[in-house]
Design a protein that fits this description.
Layout: H1 2-48, H2 53-56, E1 62-63, E2 66-67, E3 69-72, E4 77-79, H3 102-111, E5 114-122, E6 129-141, E7 144-153
Antiparallel strand pairs: 1-2, 3-4, 3-7, 5-6, 6-7
Length: about 150
């Protein structure tokens, strides 16, 4: 009887480990796709400046729950595809459901060149916050510096 119990425990551990490894692989792939999308948007802004904003609002830049957004480094949101009426707002004091100052963290990541910010945010249509990670990268055009970002739920 003991051998069967040990065998079952080993099988359960192997199944759990396989699930964790699979989840990590999926998450790595999603993160790589986000980085590619943000890099492409940064390149567009570096080339066209504000002329790129209308293109960044198009559906090409929106994928499932992810989209590309753009802020000026002073925190003013200039591209926000889910709700264009939110453009022009100062997002510096944006906090997540746990009080984490994500607006300031986004700006800080851009000032450092690029970076990931993890926080709690409700998925579209939900009220309960989920873990979300957002990749931020700096873009520059003439005398203006922007932060460009896109995120995924984990």
């Amino acid at each position: 009887m003991k051998k069967i119990e040990i065998f079952l425990v080993v099988i359960i551990i192997l199944i759990a480990l396989t699930g964790v490894l699979y989840q990590q692989k999926v998450e790595s792939k999603q993160k790589a796709e986000v980085v590619l999308l943000v890099d492409k948007a940064v390149q567009l802004i570096d080339e066209k400046g504000e002329a790129a904003f209308s293109e960044l609002r198009s559906s090409e830049w929106v994928h499932n729950d992810s989209y590309v957004f753009v802020w000026q480094l002073d925190g003013i949101r200039v591209v926000y595809p889910p709700d264009p009426s939110g453009e022009g707002k100062n997002m510096t004091d944006l906090v997540d459901s746990e009080g984490k100052q994500i607006g300031k963290l986004f700006i800080q990541a851009a000032e450092n060149g690029s970076g990931w910010v993890e926080y709690m945010w409700p998925k579209p249509g939900e009220t309960t916050p989920s873990v979300k990670i957002t990749y931020i990268k700096k873009a520059e055009y003439q005398n203006q510096t922007y932060l460009v970002g896109s995120g995924i739920y984990i």
